[in-house]
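C-alpha cells in:
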C-alpha cells in the first residue's frame, strides 16, 4: 500500500486518487476454448504439492507437463492437435477460469479465503477451491515462461486479462507460498490440520498493529499471541476472517485491513458478537471500542480525524480517535456519506501536470517579474479552534423520514471556536491528497497560478452551516469570489485541530 497512503493519516497519494478514478475493465471473450476433465481430489492435491516444489525452478514445456494438462486437466473443444502452442494453452486456461462455476475473488465478499476451508455446509467447497487454484497455478507457470521468452513482465498479461482471472492468478501465487502442503492431510471436509508457514510472523504483526493503535486490551492480545506461539497448528478458535490473516493469504484491498482488525477483536471473545458488523467489510464504517474509536481509512470521519495529534493509519485503520458518548462503549457503526457531485474528468487528468505546474508554461526565457515569492504568514496562526466532540445520529430517508435498512449514521464534528460550538456535518466522501514535502524552500510561484490564501478561522465568517436536526439553511455562497481554476489555500497552522477543521469544512 506504499502507493496508496499519504504521509499523513487520512490522506492518499495522487497516484491512488487518479487510479481510483480511472478504473477500466478489459473486454474479455468468455467463449470457452476447452473443457474440464474429471479429476479426483487427491490428484489435485498431489499436483499442487508438485507445483509448490518447482515454483522457483525455471518452467519447462516438457512432454510430461503437456500430458498432464491435456490428458488429466483439460481437453480441446475443437479438432485434436498433436502439439499445442503456449499461447493456445494460456487462452484455454484463461477461458476456463472465466467460467461462472469458479469463485470470483475480485468480489470483496469472496476475499475471506479461509471461509473455503471452514465451510462445512458445502463438502465440495474445498475441492472446488483447490481445483481453481490448480488451474490458475498451471496458467501462472505458462505466463511466467512466456514472459521470460518475450522479455516482458508477467504482470503484463494479468493487466490485460479479466479481473476474475487476474485476481485468481494472484491468489494462487500467494496460496502456494503460504500453505504447507507437505505437512497437511486433506479431506473433502476441510484442510486438516491447517499448518501455517507464516503463523509466527503474522502473530507478531497482530501485536505490532495493536500496539500502534493503542488497543485497550493489549494484555489479552499478549496472552493469546504467547499461547499460539510455537508450531504451525492453530490452538484457538479463530474466525474465518482472522484465519485468512494468519494464513497470510490476504488479497490487496480493504479485505486485508478487515482481516487484521478481526484478529484483534477475536482476542477478546466477549465483544466478538457486538462487532460482528466488521464481517460486512463495509468501507464507510468504524467502531467504538471502550475508550477509543477506530475508523476505516476510506470513511470520511477517519479522513478528517486523521489530522489530529495521536491517530495513526495502521493496516488501513485510523486510530485511536476520540471517544463519543453518542455510541455504546462497544459498537460498530456504518457512516452515511454521499459522493461529491463534481468528479475529475478525463481531460482534467490529461492536463493536470500542465495546469498544476507552479512555474507556468515552459519557455526558453523567464522574466523575474513573472514570479512571486510565496511564504507562510505565521502570524496568522490560530489556537482558538478545538475539537469538542463527535456527534452521531441515525440517518433518515429524506422522503419518508424513516431510518434506512442499514441504519447508517450521519456524523458531525463539533468544534469549539471562540467559545461557541460549531457542528460541522460531514456529508461527502472526499479525498485528501498528501503533496510531496517542500525541500529547501520557499520557492517562487508563477503569477499566472490563480490561488486565494485565507486563514482557517475566516472560514467561519459570512458562512452558514447546515443544522444538525435537518435544518436546510445551506451556505449563502462561497465566501470568496473564485472560479473553477482558482485554488483555495487554507492556512491551518498552529494547533492540530485547525487542520481538522479545515478538512471538515
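Residues out:
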Amino acid at each position: 500500500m506504499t502507493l496508496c497512503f499519504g504521509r499523513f493519516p487520512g490522506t492518499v497519494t495522487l497516484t491512488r486518487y487518479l487510479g481510483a478514478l480511472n478504473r477500466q475493465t478489459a473486454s474479455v471473450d468468455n467463449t470457452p476454448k476447452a473443457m474440464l476433465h474429471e479429476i479426483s481430489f487427491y490428484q489435485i492435491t498431489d499436483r499442487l504439492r508438485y507445483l509448490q516444489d518447482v515454483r522457483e525452478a525455471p518452467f519447462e514445456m516438457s512432454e510430461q507437463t503437456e500430458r498432464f494438462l491435456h490428458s488429466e486437466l483439460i481437453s480441446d473443444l475443437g479438432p485434436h492437435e498433436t502439439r499445442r502452442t503456449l499461447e493456445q494453452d494460456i487462452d484455454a486456461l484463461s477461458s476456463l477460469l472465466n467460467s461462472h462455476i469458479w469463485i470470483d475473488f475480485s468480489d470483496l465478499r469472496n476475499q475471506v479465503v479461509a471461509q473455503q476451508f471452514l465451510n462445512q455446509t458445502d463438502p465440495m467447497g474445498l475441492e472446488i477451491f483447490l481445483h481453481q487454484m490448480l488451474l490458475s497455478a498451471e496458467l501462472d507457470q505458462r505466463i511466467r515462461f512466456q514472459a521470460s521468452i518475450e522479455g516482458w513482465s508477467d504482470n503484463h498479461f494479468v493487466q490485460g486479462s479479466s479481473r476474475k482471472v487476474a485476481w485468481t492468478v494472484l491468489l494462487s501465487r500467494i496460496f502456494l507460498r503460504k500453505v504447507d502442503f507437505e505437512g497437511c492431510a486433506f479431506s473433502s471436509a476441510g484442510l486438516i490440520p491447517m499448518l501455517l508457514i507464516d503463523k509466527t510472523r503474522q502473530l507478531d504483526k497482530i501485536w505490532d498493529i495493536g500496539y500502534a493503535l493503542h488497543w485497550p486490551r493489549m494484555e489479552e492480545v499478549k496472552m493469546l499471541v504467547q499461547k499460539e506461539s510455537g508450531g504451525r497448528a492453530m490452538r484457538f478458535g479463530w474466525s474465518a476472517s482472522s484465519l485468512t490473516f494468519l494464513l497470510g493469504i490476504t488479497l490487496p484491498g480493504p479485505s486485508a485491513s478487515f482481516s487484521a482488525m478481526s484478529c484483534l477483536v477475536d482476542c477478546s471473545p466477549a465483544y466478538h458478537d457486538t462487532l460482528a458488523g466488521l464481517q460486512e467489510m463495509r468501507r464507510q464504517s468504524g467502531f467504538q471500542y471502550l475508550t477509543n474509536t477506530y475508523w476505516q481509512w476510506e470513511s470520511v470521519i477517519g479522513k478528517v480525524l486523521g489530522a489530529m495529534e495521536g491517530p495513526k493509519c495502521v493496516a488501513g485503520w485510523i486510530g485511536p480517535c476520540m471517544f463519543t458518548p453518542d455510541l455504546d462503549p462497544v459498537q460498530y457503526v456504518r457512516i452515511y456519506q454521499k459522493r461529491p457531485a463534481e468528479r475529475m474528468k478525463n481531460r482534467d487528468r490529461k492536463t493536470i501536470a500542465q495546469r498544476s505546474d507552479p512555474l507556468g508554461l515552459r519557455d526558453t526565457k523567464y522574466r523575474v517579474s513573472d514570479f512571486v515569492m510565496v511564504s507562510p504568514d505565521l502570524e496568522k496562526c490560530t489556537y482558538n479552534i478545538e475539537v469538542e466532540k463527535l456527534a452521531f445520529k441515525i440517518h433518515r430517508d429524506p422522503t419518508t423520514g424513516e431510518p434506512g435498512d442499514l441504519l447508517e449514521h450521519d456524523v458531525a464534528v463539533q468544534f469549539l471556536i471562540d467559545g461557541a460550538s460549531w457542528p460541522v456535518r460531514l456529508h461527502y466522501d472526499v479525498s485528501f491528497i498528501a503533496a510531496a514535502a517542500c525541500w529547501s524552500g520557499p520557492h517562487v510561484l508563477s503569477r499566472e497560478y490563480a490561488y486565494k490564501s485565507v486563514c482557517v478561522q475566516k472560514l467561519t465568517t459570512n458562512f452558514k452551516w447546515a443544522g444538525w436536526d435537518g435544518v436546510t439553511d445551506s451556505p449563502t455562497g462561497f465566501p470568496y469570489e473564485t472560479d473553477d481554476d482558482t485554488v483555495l489555500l487554507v492556512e491551518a497552522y498552529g494547533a492540530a485541530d485547525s487542520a481538522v477543521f479545515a478538512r471538515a469544512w
